[in-house]
């Protein structure tokens, strides 16, 4: 029988804590849950009020990996859920609002993915996101060069951008926005991706076509679509290496000369939070959210 743990008055069954999920690193499920428990203070604000999609990998990243968007069977009745619009009709999704809900969800072994809008305002985007994805032999070093260009270009429109590693190969840029639909934000993001390709033609591609991407950075603007989700800050990715999607400073972006410099594992996050706090915290300040030009 799985041990029962009480978290803020909620009883949660935590299973297979000794199971090794990442063989190359020796990381166990218990250590993964420890990461989420100790980063909850900075992670939860990025999940709260946002319908969450779970990318589950219960047997580790080498096992079956699958998305769960609807409320999973067996979800405790104290976990908050919300009805969300979809093209095929409304659906019900989980909202991870507190530490007990986070630990229940983490026990499923999942990456956390969120929309760029909140459950109470699905028609208005409050985030703009660029997913910078390098096509080998390009690396995150090349993504950093593109990120710096995009940061300056966004600033010219009065939009303040923040960066985090994707936890995979690339980099994510995030900005707070207001007063626009997901469709409008997507249009704006696509226009900037096209502009980036014109400005950096040897480095950037704005189309997803695989044959165009080797040696270039794909500026994925499509993550702004209302139906799309992006890996949340501080989530551990389902990859052979247990890398965390980690907020980074612009000095770290500008100074990146080797891909290894922007790879962070669960043990790295606590010290970074103590040193920097949550580098993405300004996203929660409504006064910083920009209107699109």
From TrEMBL:
Where in the numbering of this chain does the DNA ligase D polymerase domain appear?
28-278
The record's NCBIfam families line, in alphabetical order, gives:
ligD_pol
Gene3D superfamilies, per the entry: DNA primase, PRIM domain
Q: What is the lineage of its organism?
A: Bacteria, Bacillati, Actinomycetota, Actinomycetes, Kitasatosporales
Under which name does UniProt file this protein? Answer: ATP-dependent DNA ligase
Q: Which UniProt keywords apply?
A: Ligase
What species does this protein belong to? Answer: Streptomyces ambofaciens
Report any Pfam family annotated for this entry: LigD_Prim-Pol
Q: Which domain of life does this protein belong to? A: Bacteria
> Looking at the keywords, is Lipid metabolism present?
no
**Listed GO molecular functions?**
ligase activity
């Amino acid at each position: 029988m799985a041990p029962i743990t009480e978290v803020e008055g909620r009883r949660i069954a935590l299973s297979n804590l000794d199971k090794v999920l990442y063989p190359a690193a020796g990381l166990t499920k218990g250590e993964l849950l420890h990461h989420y428990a100790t980063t909850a203070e900075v992670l939860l604000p990025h999940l709260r009020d946002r319908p969450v999609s779970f990318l589950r990998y219960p047997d580790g990243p080498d096992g079956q990996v699958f998305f769960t968007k609807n409320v999973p069977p067996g979800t405790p009745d104290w976990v908050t859920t919300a009805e969300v619009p979809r093209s095929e009709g409304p659906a019900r999704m989980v909202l991870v609002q507190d530490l007990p809900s986070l630990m229940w969800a983490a026990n499923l072994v999942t990456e956390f993915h969120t929309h760029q809008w909140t459950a109470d305002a699905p028609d208005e985007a409050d985030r703009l996101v660029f997913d910078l994805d390098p096509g080998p032999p390009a690396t995150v070093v090349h993504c950093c060069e593109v990120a710096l260009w995009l940061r300056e270009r966004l600033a010219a429109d009065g939009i303040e951008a923040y960066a985090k590693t994707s936890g995979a190969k690339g980099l994510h840029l995030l900005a707070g926005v207001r007063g626009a639909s997901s469709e409008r934000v997507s249009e704006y993001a696509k226009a900037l991706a096209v502009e980036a390709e014109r400005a950096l033609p040897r480095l950037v591609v704005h189309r997803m076509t695989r044959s165009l991407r080797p040696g270039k950075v794909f500026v994925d603007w499509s993550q702004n679509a209302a139906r799309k989700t992006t890996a949340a800050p501080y989530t551990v990715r389902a990859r052979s290496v247990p890398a965390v999607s980690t907020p980074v400073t612009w000095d770290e972006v500008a100074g990146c000369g080797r891909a290894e410099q922007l790879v962070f594992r669960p043990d790295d996050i606590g010290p970074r939070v103590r040193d920097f706090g949550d580098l993405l915290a300004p996203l929660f300040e409504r006064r910083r959210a920009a209107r699109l030009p």
